[in-house]
Structure formats: C-alpha cells, structure tokens
Predict the 3D structure of the following.
Amino acid sequence: MSTAVSPKLWRYEAIGPKGPVQGQAEAQTEVALDQSLAREGITLLRAKSIPKRSNRELHKMSGPDLVTFTTQLATVLGAGVPIVEGMRDLGLRMRSESSRHVVATVVKELESGASLSGALASRPKSFPAIYRSSVQAGELSGSMPEVLQRLAEHMEWTRSIRQTTVQALVYPAILGGAICLLVVTLVTFLVPRIVKMFPGGVDALPWQTRQVLQVSDALTGNWKMIIAGLVVVGFGLYSFLRTPKGRLCGSGFLLAIPRVGEMLRMFATAKFAATAGTLQNAGCQVNDVIGLGGAACGNAKMAEAFASADRRIRQGASISEAFSKERLMDPLLIQMVAVGEQAGDLGGCLDKLGEHYDRELPRIVKWMLSFLEPALLVIGGLIVAYTLFAAFLPLLDMYDKL
C-alpha cells in the first residue's frame, strides 16, 4: 500500500508574460512545479526546495497588501478582465511572497470551479468574514467592482482610525514613562544621598523626608520582588484580557471612565457605521449587516450590545427599536438608523454617520489630548516637587536653627 507524499515547498525564479517573476509554490517535484507554472504562462528558470516550517508567514496577507489587492481587483474587474486572469496577474505583482502565495491559492480554487467568495474562504486569516460576506453580496447583486472599491475605502478608513488612535497615545505614554522614571530615580538615588549629609539620624528628619525615605527603602530593598510581581500581574492581566470574559470586563471598565468611555464608544460606533454601511450597500441581509458590523466595532462590550440588538431584530423588532433598548448605543446612531428605515436608505444614512464621525473623531482625540498632556505634566510636576521638597527640607530646618 503506497503512502501519499506531501508536496515540497519551492522558491523559484521564472520569466512571466510581463518579465521576471520570483515566488514560492508547492509541488511534488521540480518537474511538477515547471508544469504547473507553464500552465500559467510562466517559464521556470531555477528552483530550490526550502523547509516548509519557514513558510508560516505565507498563510496571511498583510493589511496594506489586502487594501492594494482589493483596489486593483476592483479596477481589473471594472475593465472587464476575466477574474482568473486578472487575479493571476495581480498575484504576480504583489510585493510580498506571503501575498503572492495567498493569491495563488485563491486562483487555484477559482480554477477548480469555486466562486470568488468560496475561494476566499480557503484563506480566512487573510480575508475576514466581513470581506467574504461583502464579496458574496457583490456576486449576488452583480456589482462586484463597486463592492470591492467600497471595501478598499472602508479598510483604508479603519486603518487610518487605528493609526490616529495609536499616534494620539504615543506622546502621553512616553511622557508618563519619563515622569515615572524621573520619580524613581529621585526617590531611590538622589534623596538618600542628600539625606546622608545631615547629622542626627533618621528620627531627626522631618516627617515628609522620612516618608520619602520609607518609599526609597521599599523600592531599593524589594526591587526584585516588585519587578517579579509586576511581571506576574502583567502576564496574568494580559492572559485574562485575551479571554472573552476578560475582553468584556476590560472594555466595560474603559467605557465607564468619564470622557474616555465616550470617546471609545464613538470609535466603536464609527467602525460599526462604516462596516454596516458597506455591507448594506453591498446588498447583504440586515442580520448580516448588524451581526458583522457589531463584531467589527472593535470593543467587546459594544459588540455584545450589537449582538443583543441583533437578537431582538431576528425576533421581529425594527433596528432603531432594538438599538434604543441598549444602554450603550449612541443616540445619534439610533436617530440616523430610524431615519434610514423610514426613508428606505439605511446604507446611505450609515455612510453619512460614518462621514460625520470621520470628521469628529480627530477633533475629539485632539481635545482629549489637550487635557491629558497638561494633566500628566501637572501630576508629575507635583510628585517631583514634593520629592525634592522632602529632600531639601532638612537643609531648610538647619538654616532656620542657625
């Protein structure tokens, strides 16, 4: 009884219809690889077998590559190019080997008779559920180029929102870390050395100075235990937040913080509006629109609220009525959904809401930072001033006695 041999992974150099081509592909032998490439109009020049374990990164297309691929595919299909031929050419032009490998896999699925949404389902890590659902709706409605273009715009918008959030938090994080480092340096290094200059022992020092020295002794005498405790607590918190219950608790805690929670709720609502608008205009069913849009909002607590509203909709409630039952829902979202239902243009209203948040969110982030940065400076300044005051207070007492 013969045992099937798994295909090897080959890195190859070849000549395609548009010039030199480099990539990776699976085949039993180099001859089989040559034959496979020849069917695609590619002439193999040289190939080298490589270990499959080095190919793990080839199982996912990166976010920027997915945006580029979607935009180019929309252009190709809009120009009337057959989908298999168009995707094959796009795959050869992708910048990374990972993306070329993913597209090549999808092309093989298409050649075997699968639909585009079915072929994309073979790579769920590269093409998320919202992507596949939108493509399926585009196939049913016959408006694939328009759907793909909207998908590309939506993904680019989502990425820009994420970048705006990260950039907004970088400076406060650096500032807070610098203040903490300065305070620890003062308490553990500077203050003890200044205090040693004064006679009379610790009992003769002012209570403020003794208080700072106690903190210094606790940090310097137990620093190993403190670091180990922080590592254990950090790892435990990280592991807990990766669980469904942990994500719910963490997002619920952040939403309860004044101002911060309001901003995070707006971020989640903006992502929902953009995602749901894309799905609605692509022709998806309303339950898919709410379910996938809620899952893509980026906040576990808000996603739970959207899922609860989706269950009410499945039981016969209108979308605006289901949303109004949820405490976390933005009143503006409820109002716009109600208008969209009455006018029969839910997708258009969701798009307008997304455009509103697109303009409003950068302003709110900037406004939040205008308070956060001065607050960090004031708090850090007060801590540093108190530490220095406690360090030099014995000197002032000695001066008064003289």
Summary: Residues 346-401 form the longest helix (56 residues). The longest strand covers residues 8-16. Confidence is low (pLDDT under 50) at residues 53-57.
